[in-house]
Design goal:
By secondary structure, the chain is an alpha/beta fold. It has 14 helices and twelve strands. The structure holds guanosine-5'-triphosphate. Keywords: Chaperone, Hydrolase, Nucleotide-binding.
Length: 401
C-alpha cells in the first residue's frame, strides 16, 4: 500500500448474487491481510452476518459489524460512518471489506468513502481509501432473463428512492471496477460468452472475472488500486456510446450491439409514450434524452434497464436559459454551439440503445414513426395530451455527455 490509509473494497450486487459467498471465500483465503468486515443488511433478519459467522473462523482476525436497519446508501450512511469510525480508532486491521445490501445504490456508498459525508462526525477520508468497487452479478438469473424476456433480477424490493431492482442493478454494473460474474457453474459456456459481451458493452472499463461460488483470487478485488471516482462515474457504456458517436456498430460480438439515435425533430408525445413500453425485449439498456412536442421547456429523459423503462422530465434545454448564462456554457464547452438550431436551439433527441440481436433498422423506423410529421410540425403542440409527468427537475440535459 502506498499510503497509510486503510484500503476499502465495497461489494455490491443484487440479492442472492453471491456477495456473502465471495466475502466468505476472501476471508478464508490466504492473503496475509487482517480484514475487517462491515455487512449491511436489509430487513429484520441479519442473514448475512449469521451466514458469515457460521461459515468463517472468526479467530480474532476478522470482525463483523452488522448494520440492520436498512441500506447503506441512505438511512445508514451516518451509522455506517460511525461504525467504520469506531473500527478505525482501533486500527487493528489492514483492510476493510464492505458488503452492501442488494438494493444499495453504489454511487452514494462510494461517495461516503471517497468524499466523506456532510453532518458526520467522522471523516472517512482521513483513515480510509476506497480501493475497489466490486459488483457481483448472478449469471444464472441474467441467462434466465435473456431466455424468457423477464427482469434481469428476480428481486422484488424497491430501494428508498423508489427505483426498481433492475435500475439499481444497472447502476451497480455501470459504476464499478471489477465485475464478478458469479454462478457460472449454472450456465453453459456459450451463454456465458454472450452475458460477458453484454456486460462489456454496459461497462467497458471494469475487469470481468468469472466465478463459481465466489472463488475469486483475493488480489482481483483487494488492493487493486483501481477506484477513481471521476473515471467510475464516466465509465458507463451508454455514456461512452453517446460521447463517441457510435451511430452504427458493425462489430457486434455475440450479437450484442448498440447505436445512437439522433434527430432534431420532436416526437409526438403520445406516440413515443406508447412505443417506450413496447420496445423489444432484447434491448437491455436505453438512455439519453428526447424532445417531446409541447414540452419545449424541458428535455425528457429515458432510463431503460432490462424490462423496466422510465421516461419523464429530466433536463433543461440551454435554449431556455437567459442569454448570458447560455454564453457561459458555450464558452466552457467548445463545440456546443455547432448543433445549435436557429429556431429551436439545442432541442433535439439523442438516445443510445444497447441490446442483444435486435433489428436496428426496425427500431429506427418505429422511432421515426413517432416523430412529428411535416403537417404536425404546424400543429399547436400545446393541444397534444401530455402523458409525461409534469414534474420538472431542473438539471441540464447536457449533464449526460
Ligand atoms: N450454484 C451456485 N450457487 C451459488 C454460487 N454462489 C452463491 N451461491 C448460492 O446462492 C445463494 C445466495 O448466495 P449469497 O452469497 O448469500 O448471496 P448474497 O449476494 O450475499 O445475497 P444477499 O445477502 O441476500 O444479498 C446461496 O445459497 C449460495 O450458496 C455459485 O457460484 N453457484
Amino acid at each position: 500500500m502506498t499510503t497509510d490509509r486503510i484500503p476499502v473494497t465495497v461489494l455490491s450486487g443484487p440479492l442472492g448474487a453471491g456477495k456473502t459467498t465471495v466475502l466468505n471465500h476472501v476471508l478464508t483465503a490466504d492473503h496475509g491481510l487482517e480484514v475487517a468486515v462491515v455487512v449491511n443488511d436489509m430487513g429484520d433478519v441479519n442473514v448475512d452476518a449469521e451466514h458469515v459467522a457460521q461459515q468463517t473462523d472468526l479467530g480474532g482476525d476478522e470482525e463483523i459489524i452488522e448494520l440492520s436497519n436498512g441500506c447503506i446508501c441512505c438511512r445508514l450512511r451516518g451509522d455506517m460512518l460511525d461504525e467504520v469510525g469506531r473500527l478505525a480508532d482501533r486500527r487493528e486491521f489492514d483492510y476493510l471489506l464492505v458488503e452492501s445490501s442488494g438494493i444499495s445504490e453504489p454511487i452514494p456508498v462510494a461517495q461516503t468513502f471517497a468524499m466523506g459525508f456532510e453532518d458526520a462526525d467522522f471523516d472517512p477520508t482521513d483513515t480510509y481509501e476506497l480501493d475497489t468497487m466490486v459488483t457481483v452479478v448472478n449469471a444464472h438469473s441474467i441467462w434466465d432473463a435473456f431466455d424468457s424476456g423477464t427482469a434481469l433480477t428476480d428481486q422484488q424490493l424497491e430501494d428508498d428512492s423508489g427505483r426498481v431492482p433492475e435500475e439499481v442493478l444497472l447502476d451497480q454494473i455501470e459504476f464499478c471496477d471489477v465485475l464478478l460474474l458469479n454462478k457460472c457453474d449454472l450456465v453453459p459456456d456459450d451463454a456465458l460468452e454472450e452475458i460477458e459481451a453484454v456486460l462489456e458493452r454496459l461497462q467497458p472499463r471494469a475487469k470481468l472475472v468469472r466465478t463459481e461460488f465466489g472463488d475469486v483470487e483475493p488480489d482481483e478485488i483487494l488492493g487493486t488500486g483501481q477506484f477513481d471516482f471521476e473515471r467510475a462515474q464516466a465509465s458507463a457504456g451508454w455514456k461512452h456510446e453517446l460521447q463517441h458517436d457510435h451511430h452504427h456498430d458493425p462489430q457486434a460480438e455475440h450479437g450484442v450491439t448498440s447505436f445512437v439515435y439522433q434527430r432534431d425533430r420532436p416526437f409526438h408525445p403520445e406516440r413515443i409514450a406508447a412505443l417506450l413500453p413496447a420496445l423489444p425485449d432484447a434491448l437491455i439498456r436505453a438512455k439519453g434524452f428526447f424532445w417531446s412536442a409541447g414540452r419545449e421547456d424541458v428535455a425528457m429523459g429515458i432510463d431503460k434497464a432490462g424490462t423496466s423503462v422510465r421516461a419523464g422530465p429530466s433536463g433543461q434545454w440551454l435554449a431556455t436559459l437567459p442569454e448570458a448564462q447560455r454564453e457561459q456554457y458555450f464558452a466552457a464547452r467548445p463545440g456546443l454551439e455547432d448543433d445549435w438550431d436557429e429556431e429551436w436551439g439545442d432541442r433535439m433527441t439523442r438516445l443510445v440503445f444497447i441490446g442483444r440481436e435486435f433489428d436496428h433498422d426496425a427500431l429506427i423506423d418505429r422511432l421515426d414513426d413517432c416523430l412529428l410529421t411535416e403537417s404536425e410540425m404546424n400543429d399547436d403542440w400545446d393541444s397534444y395530451p401530455d402523458p409525461f409527468e409534469p414534474e420538472d427537475r431542473r438539471e441540464l440535459a447536457l449533464a449526460d455527455d
